[in-house]
């Protein structure tokens, strides 16, 4: 039986889900670079032939660690769903002579190099400039103009994003973004292989998006993601997922599969995603490409990752389209034939719809809740709040323990401010959006208040 070394770190789909899909195709050996989620530990023991946890791993060099563990278990492939480990895994696969993302994987991780590569290939994107200090931010403003976005080059989940509206914002934005990256690193949400990555930044133009020119129904956000796989250098786009509007500055609130777009619009978006992915020269890996939608059909690529979309993106795709992306990629890494979809899957091929909602302490407009609440999924009256026939569940691995205060939303922290993640299955994408809007409106009233009145914000 084939053997796969599964390299776990924070980020990506729930560990239980990903492990089960790999275990269906190979003997799994787990290397945990982050502490295992408590909810997944039992499943790990049942599904894995071996589990190596932090503190037992040996040499500090991450590539050496992955390489040594792969050799020790006789791995035929190495897989990671985590943004923070993809570069190290790609380098380990190169050393081992195994299929992987390839030498250019770093281009899909470092946003500075990513944008420079796209500029060289003429891929539409916001104007940008790499920056290393306040002086370089001030110099960049001359070419980009205000407002502009400061972002960390190696971040994920909109962490350390700061909008700079004028010269007076530069110093505080720079201080806050760097502090957030340092804090994220302490919690394990940081690049694991590249030293000093939390100090790398860029600024970019804030392009004007519009959902109204693309979607017939209200409630959609102005960007989509194209999910796919590169196998032996050939890009296979699978489907599109849509979004609800982000919370300022650009924190994702909800992902919906499928994106309810006309076929012609979907085709144009996919071709732009193909240009972005092909320019990066990836070999064999999952891909997640985000594209901003503008007026009059204009589009800009936001970013591409050499891994699948995080949170529930991949489970949503399997539920709606029956496509097991992790299983497809594992087969590709093992050199097996893969039954790719006949074309890019769209609303016409979908069976129902699915979406994931990030619980943040803000209302639909992004304003903070009037008082502090604690997370408790059992307090959510699902029959009263969602459409009949819809099904709402809590994603335990990505949620705080019940009774934990919902964090005060921090625009600079992005997804690090989330309290929970919920998955909704419904008859169609519009129902997912309407149910999520209802839930968002209801949560500050139905969740229990923080005890002892500690809560006015």
SSE layout:
Elements: E1 3-8, H1 15-23, E2 27-32, H2 41-47, E3 48-52, H3 62-73, E4 77-79, H4 86-96, H5 111-121, E5 128-131, H6 134-144, E6 148-152, E7 162-164, H7 170-186, E8 201-205, E9 223-231, E10 234-243, E11 254-257, H8 263-280, E12 285-293, E13 299-305, H9 313-321, H10 325-333, E14 353-359, E15 374-375, H11 382-385, E16 391-394, E17 404-405, E18 420-426, H12 429-446
Parallel strand pairs: 1-2, 1-4, 2-3
Antiparallel strand pairs: 5-8, 6-7, 6-8, 9-10, 9-12, 10-11, 11-14, 12-13, 14-18, 15-17, 16-18
Helix pairs in contact: 3-4, 5-8
Short description:
The protein is an alpha+beta fold. It has helices spanning 15-23, 41-47, 62-73, 86-96, 111-121, 134-144, 170-186, 263-280, 313-321, 325-333, 382-385, 429-446, and strands spanning 3-8, 27-32, 48-52, 77-79, 128-131, 148-152, 162-164, 201-205, 223-231, 234-243, 254-257, 285-293, 299-305, 353-359, 374-375, 391-394, 404-405, 420-426. The relative contact order is 0.13.
Architecture overview:
With 457 residues, this protein is α+β, with helices and mostly antiparallel strands. It has helices at 15-23, 41-47, 62-73, 86-96, 111-121, 134-144, 170-186, 263-280, 313-321, 325-333, 382-385, 429-446; strands spanning 3-8, 27-32, 48-52, 77-79, 128-131, 148-152, 162-164, 201-205, 223-231, 234-243, 254-257, 285-293, 299-305, 353-359, 374-375, 391-394, 404-405, 420-426. It contains twelve helices and 18 strands. The relative contact order is 0.13. The model has no long low-confidence stretch (mean pLDDT 94). The longest helix is centred in the middle third of the chain and has 18 residues, at 263-280. The protein folds into three domains: 3-98, Rossmann fold (3-Layer(aba) Sandwich); 127-205, Dna Ligase, domain 1, CATH 3.30.1490.20; 223-453, D-amino Acid Aminotransferase, Chain A, domain 1 (2-Layer Sandwich), CATH 3.30.470.20. The strands form four sheets. An eight-stranded antiparallel beta sheet has the order 13-12-9-10-11-14-18-16, with helices on both faces. It has a four-stranded parallel beta sheet with strand order 3-2-1-4, with helices on both faces. Strands 5-8-6-7 form a four-stranded antiparallel beta sheet, with helices on both faces.
